[in-house]
Amino acid sequence: MRQDIIEGIVEPLDGYLSGYLTEKDVDWSELRWCARRNRREGAFWDVREALTPYYHKLIMADKDFFRNGNTDSQAKKTLQELLEGEGHYAGRILNDVDIVQAAENWAEQLIADNHDPNFFFWMMKIMLERDYKTDWKAVYETLKKKLARAQQSGNFKLSEMHCLLMGITMIELSNNSREKKNELFGLLRLNWGFFKYMYSVLIHYIVGMRVDNFAALANTACSRKTSRPYMHLFYKAFKAKFDSLCPEGLIDPHSGESVRVQAERHLEKMEQIIKSTPKSDNLNELCGILFPKVMEDVLKQSRPKTYEELETAVDDLTNRYNKVLEQLTNAVKDVESDKITSDDLTAAFLRFPTNLALGLFGSVSTLLAQNQTWLKCSPHIHEQILAKQEEAKVHIDGDYVVSKHVDHEVNGVAAGATGISVDKTGKGKK
Predict the structure, then answer these.
(1) What's the whole-number mean pLDDT along residues 130-152?
(2) Cα-Cα-Cα-Cα dihedral sign, residues 176, 178, 179, 181
(3) What is the C-alpha separation between 238 and 34, in angstroms, rounded?
(4) Which helix (H) or strand (E) holds 377?
(5) pTM for the full predicted model
């Protein structure tokens, strides 16, 4: 190894890590310049040989890098920058790293002041882009067992690092190109604050945050503006797990209030955020990779409709309702002309859910208040609708009926006025 590499790189790093030199004692810009100069002069492998032990120490979160907590950053930043300057396959020099142990070591160092795992993220990014390899299936199996015991471990930072590494693992196991994986990794890193909420809900343990309960987590999620475009995803996951996350009888020790009651208020906040904030689909693909089973349902029905979507839906339903109303009024005329029977007209009303049928009955009664045929048929029709309602013994909100059933029922109206076919003799048949 060249002497200037020993003097310019090895000795300053050894001095700092041994505690002999403080961070201020080391000229970090000179150290970086020494590495770059030697690389340009052809001593590329000598520089890598000199730096490889320190890369290992950093990714393994060696305690010497954290002697002063997380306040010292120059050594970490310098090694991060130098690793970025290595060749395309430099990640292979770290293939022997136990990445699960590395994540756990970082958790131990970060928990004291609850720092974000930015350096770990960046080191993983650099390694993966430079062909770092490990047995990701084995990593997955190990992490799955550890996350299943998250509540027993009681370590919010350790569980955060396990979740973070699980996210990286799922990306690496996906059938995507290296370029696409790098893109997904970037989304995970940039939106880690949001994904902490998702992982907390899905593993039933709050990760990466010092909050007491899931109502407090929901409040934090509502307060984070950068997460609002993705609130529809969190809302669905949180609501699906609501009973287990916020059971009856759980009391907030600070306020003395029911956690469940608090959480219900935060659910209402989420609904308002969803309705007032344009949603983003940027994370849908990544969520499908990270949470393949849970997200299948989350992505199918991920949110309540926005005001604009509700207006469009209401307009559409109104148009369909008016079309059916027109068909039913025409059906009364068909009874007059003996094209269909009064029983056929009654059957047409009974095709619909009772609340919708009653609404249509009222509308037809208003439009045909002076029509003698309707005045003759309507008492029996009304009686039959009420009988159907009584028989069902179910009371459903009218708006729900319209929104849930109108597509099926309106589209089911067939030929003629009411969905009743007409035979060649002119008599209706059911």
Answers:
(1) 90
(2) positive
(3) 52
(4) helix 372-392
(5) 0.67
